[in-house]
Amino acid sequence: MSKAVVPGQNNDVSDWWTTSIIDMAPGQIRFRGHPIEELIGNASFAQMIWLMTRGDLPGAPQAKLLECALVAAVDHGPQAPSIAAARMAVTCGLSLNGAMANAVNMLDDVHGGAGEQAVELYHSIRAAVVDGMTIEEAAASKIDEWQATGSKFIPGFGHRFHKPEDPRAPRLLGLVDEAASEGFVSGEFAQIGRAIQKVLNDRKGKPVPMNIDGATAVIYAELGFAGPLARGLFCLSRSVGAMSHAWEQMQQGGRNKGPTPPVYRWSYDGPNPIEPG
Amino acid sequence: MSKAVVPGQNNDVSDWWTTSIIDMAPGQIRFRGHPIEELIGNASFAQMIWLMTRGDLPGAPQAKLLECALVAAVDHGPQAPSIAAARMAVTCGLSLNGAMANAVNMLDDVHGGAGEQAVELYHSIRAAVVDGMTIEEAAASKIDEWQATGSKFIPGFGHRFHKPEDPRAPRLLGLVDEAASEGFVSGEFAQIGRAIQKVLNDRKGKPVPMNIDGATAVIYAELGFAGPLARGLFCLSRSVGAMSHAWEQMQQGGRNKGPTPPVYRWSYDGPNPIEPG
Amino acid sequence: MSKAVVPGQNNDVSDWWTTSIIDMAPGQIRFRGHPIEELIGNASFAQMIWLMTRGDLPGAPQAKLLECALVAAVDHGPQAPSIAAARMAVTCGLSLNGAMANAVNMLDDVHGGAGEQAVELYHSIRAAVVDGMTIEEAAASKIDEWQATGSKFIPGFGHRFHKPEDPRAPRLLGLVDEAASEGFVSGEFAQIGRAIQKVLNDRKGKPVPMNIDGATAVIYAELGFAGPLARGLFCLSRSVGAMSHAWEQMQQGGRNKGPTPPVYRWSYDGPNPIEPG
Amino acid sequence: MSKAVVPGQNNDVSDWWTTSIIDMAPGQIRFRGHPIEELIGNASFAQMIWLMTRGDLPGAPQAKLLECALVAAVDHGPQAPSIAAARMAVTCGLSLNGAMANAVNMLDDVHGGAGEQAVELYHSIRAAVVDGMTIEEAAASKIDEWQATGSKFIPGFGHRFHKPEDPRAPRLLGLVDEAASEGFVSGEFAQIGRAIQKVLNDRKGKPVPMNIDGATAVIYAELGFAGPLARGLFCLSRSVGAMSHAWEQMQQGGRNKGPTPPVYRWSYDGPNPIEPG
Fold it and tell me: Which domains are assigned to chain B?
């Protein structure tokens, strides 16, 4: 028998885990107050993601933009550490859950944090505009501030492979423009993203492409997601790629698959090297 | 400059990582042959998940059923080890990626494997029917086989909390029935699921509810997903709950949050206990 | 104030987490009944590992053998998926804990389970000897049984790189022999390991080297560790390599380091390949 | 056949993974230049840990101090999120590697980073002393600096449970004092640790105990370990506790063990709560 939780009284054990996300009774489950059986079949997966993280249900146009960002970031191939980790994992005996966990764990500050940082950068630029700067001044000023903290990488911009353009960025921005023209989002973060790109292009004297993190961060900011959720949503999206590659690797077989063909091994630059035989 | 990969010749390093999921060139990304910019805005997230794991794009009715399964399993509250792990993780300093990784890693054979096992059980029953048994005989026989291997738990059936019925199961099965009546799926795995439930109810003399794993496994089997992908898809779905709870916990704050209020600690039953002071 | 745990009464919350490993009161910590301040400075790390997992303190000769096994397995280079994962992880922004977690997670059935399986194989051979077989018959018979379950790989034997001999195995077995000659261990599992090796060599007509898992499993079995702890101890040992490589990579720098030099990418064998430009 | 690595020539694939930790040829393994068969049986586990992370072999007194720190931090009971995660994990079906991975992943900035931060704090104080401050001034000044960055928690000091003293700290510091009196370490970081404690006690007007992180950080700093390795070594130490608790839980059994007894569930404070039945 379940111990009754009495509102307003001391329920210290139950209160240790307090949430406004899910409520349950035998035979009943509600998310943010909505019975699960009403959500199933009526809410899209994107709407459910929004409801769970935000507390309200988005309209269809907003959910569609979220879906576009989620579709765009699923995978960047086996060269991405996240995907490589997932593929290696199944050859080590892990099930898909373990492979996906290793992949998602990789999405830390460098591999998965750029979206979060970009959202925060965009907001800082927006705040400077609100305070009276032009958007160009604000972009230039906040880029300077960012780089003064020691990193030359502006989160969300530049790509070592996709030059002059990351094909995902203009497509995503185009969809934001459409949504803005119909009044579903403000469009101000798309402007901010483009202002950053212009400053970077001008300074470099060559195109510095907005990358997937920069473009999805525009969407997440337009939709009102907080920075940390930009990272979380990227993890969710990339989990699709990790699952797919892990499953493909499972079908390919292999045992303890290392990063390069075994014939190459690695280079040793320490003391007392073994003489070639 | 990229080393040219020449089809048919020795490209041992590139061939070490071979995939049919993603192809890339500077400025171009294709998934299963589809350019990313055509997928963004046209494929739903569920369709993208299908494309990535299966290689083809599903029709809208199939994608909708997949979406229903993904919506249904996002969360089961902070008592679920996956969710508790995610919430603890952020109080230990992890970002959302680390919290989600710890949660998904928890979804191993016991916490996350029931869907995979249920898909396999359903297929074994279907094979027995193809071989001439009635569906009732096949269900009874395969339940016996399963339990003979030592586990009394039939994957996908029974729930310690939701009695007499898990509210997600009848809703999901109803949607399968609808789709079957319109010819989008065969409906045979829904029949198999119900046949198992009938055998279990009869044997126990009381309702043994089909749970979320049993119900989503019906959908995954109807849609043609292999068993291991049932686990992977559950991981993807539950990642939404993990992200949401981790984010809520991040906003609540807390440091090194243990499982129970600290005042309770644990019970020690080893040698030389410390005398109560 | 801590809620008093009253032995024999209902302390359901405290009892949910019951352990015989650790007891605490403010200012006091005991492991298996030993005050921590007595263990620090008196128990070696190997003795502490034994105490924690087994409940008693080993003698110095037993602790020394355990230490030899732990020293032997720390690392097998960046080609090992565990080590590669640790190095990739720090380039993705993870701290050493995350890098070590990704490495240890990799040590599943294939990459980290051979020691556990070898301990179990050795015990099955020992049981057959107790039942009257000669050790050669028992080894041959249990190898047959193992392979009949579908795997050609005998856990703990064979190495794709170290031929004809893994340098760690004879050294470890020599130390077991020494300890056996002095009566510190029985030596029977070293005999069993050698019996397996003889059967495999004879069948193959060429040396099938006992590998690190086979050799450390001899030690773990001699010392009375259960199979699953052979895996756990390997994880502990390999954590040293993971930490060391992650730390070296941290000092080398690098961002989002993929498995192979980026110039190589991967091979795509799916539909609609992008034409080389 | 292994591709010959020719020093000074282009070996781009092998060079992608360059290390000074391990060198191998068939039948040969060397760590930092030492053949593995010479290390096994001669180097203690603590010496091996030092060799792997630092490149040289420590003397016995230094290795003993390292060992004391490793022994001291293995476990702090099932209330620690790391240990709770390990125990939950095995009830979800994970093997010891997965349980240990989840535990170690938890040891991020808040749960596992205090040792790293304390080493860095100690070094900043030492630098101020070198620049001419008294140790008391330096401690007070660097504490102020630390707290000015927004955290009231001084890493390595204070304990919510062990009051007035964490029993591990005075024992570890006593061993540092002994080693310093014999000239094996300088003893200056023990002084710095005590200076911090004095400042904190004076400011609070009550004892602020040096905790396990503060005390092991003294040892790691005395021995010359860099800050990040203090975290790594804590992960290694705590892995012992995670393994031991996971193994105990495996023997206790249980399925999908949540944080509190299931009868308590959690408290819901969101919209539209389910009415108590």
Answer: 112-236 (1.10.230.10)
